[in-house]
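Lecture 7, part B: from sequences to assemblies.

Below are the input chains for today's worked example.
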Amino acid sequence: MIEEVLVTARYNPKVDPSLGIWTWEIAFYLFLGGMAAGIMLFAAWAVLGRRENALAFAHNRFALWAPVVLSLGMTTLFLDLEYKLHVFRFYTSFEPSSPMSWGAWVLVLIYPLMLVQTLSTLRTGYPTLAGLVERIPGGAVILSLCEHRRRLIAWLVIPLAVGLGIYTGVLLSAFSARPFWNSGILGPLFLVSGMSTAAVLPILAGAHPQERHFFEITDMALIAVELVLIALFLINLATGAAQHMDALALVTGGPYTAPFWLWFVLPGLLVPIVFELAGLRGYRGLGLVAGVLVVYGGFMLRYLMVDIGQASTWTDYALQFDPQLLQRLMQ
Amino acid sequence: MTTYAMVIDTRTCIGCGDCVVACKNENKVPAGLNRDWVVEATRGEYPNLETEFRSERCNHCGHATCVTNCPTGASHYWKDTNIVLVAAEKCTGCKACIAACPYDARLIMHPEGYVDKCTFCHHRVDRGLDPACVSTCPTRCMHFGILDDRDSIVSRLLRERRYKTLMPETGNDPHVYYLL
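Predicted structure of the full complex, as structure tokens:
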């Protein structure tokens, strides 16, 4: 028997009794970052595959969604900072060993690329917006240039968007102090999940039947890959060291068992794949419900991962100190 | 690189908590926050029980994952030593270092929002003094010095006594040692 008890006060906010430094803001950022990467990839894929007719939405209108989605994610990331005035400090140094520093600098490359990718689709996808850009001096020339270089832009988008999608997972997996996160599978898992949540957007946005069909099949394949990656992720924990097995226990009998399986895997992956199959067989309503569930599942994956990772730890103190008792004494 | 170490004798520590009070006074740590704490660890089966007291804090790791994960360079090593500090003016409060610390030894300094932790009282070390917790300890169970110096008290104790560090398997190379 080993019992370790704190005999002096330690109740640092967000650290004790268990880590709670990151909540919905980070989960939302990881979710939207992955979705933005997926949007960029599908928009680039439609261009490189010359699918302007078959994938008209992805080819002409999808690219604009990426900067909107990512900016929303960056907003929630900003909300998470404890010392918001110092946000500029991300750009006063580059720390090669810090994934977060890499992420901050990758965004400097991603945003301009997103912008030119969007500009290259504006005249065909959003003529009104294109008209506004053309009113700016040089706007028409820039639009023409982006359209002319559309394939080059799409080629550049592929590696950077894959990097962005993987980064959202690496951000967590780089923390060896949190056994639940410390797996190289998180990067590919978050990329595939991000692509899956992006794939359902054209379905929900009312793309034409041929394009819907493409994205339903694509999304089913992505969900299948996601299920395999989740299985590998859990096997990795099960075959790891004691800390990894303890982390796995959180979702196999521990406090996160019901949330992980009943709130995420079942409604976020298994039900959508069945409903998408039904959607392909003509039940369009079920296809739309599947789309909503996939988006929900994408967010739940990040939300639970962020939460469970913080619950998995190397330290295991029993807190004797109860701050509520201290507050009662002070009243 | 100069390696500073803290050596704590678990046989003479009585868990009085004076080290915690000394730290709060010396470093003006606000109410409700703690840079150090005392753990009572009991092992065995009744009636064959064994208890040790451990005064714990940041381990000032040789391979500090809080430093490697900091995106702005706010977490850094002080003057080519293993003493890990946080430069408040560079800290964004992103909390990556808190997630990266396997000892959960970091805290958020409110209301400003930068991250804070034990500094081994580097301002005292700079003047040739021991950290406040070491100076205050009434049982003299805490010792501080340079590990690379064979004649220092910490080197001598680690040569002469059995000792352990906390969770060396993290690979962080901690530098707070506990004599057994």
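Note for the exam: Chain A touches chain B through 51 residues (CB under 8 Å). Keep this in mind when comparing with the next example.
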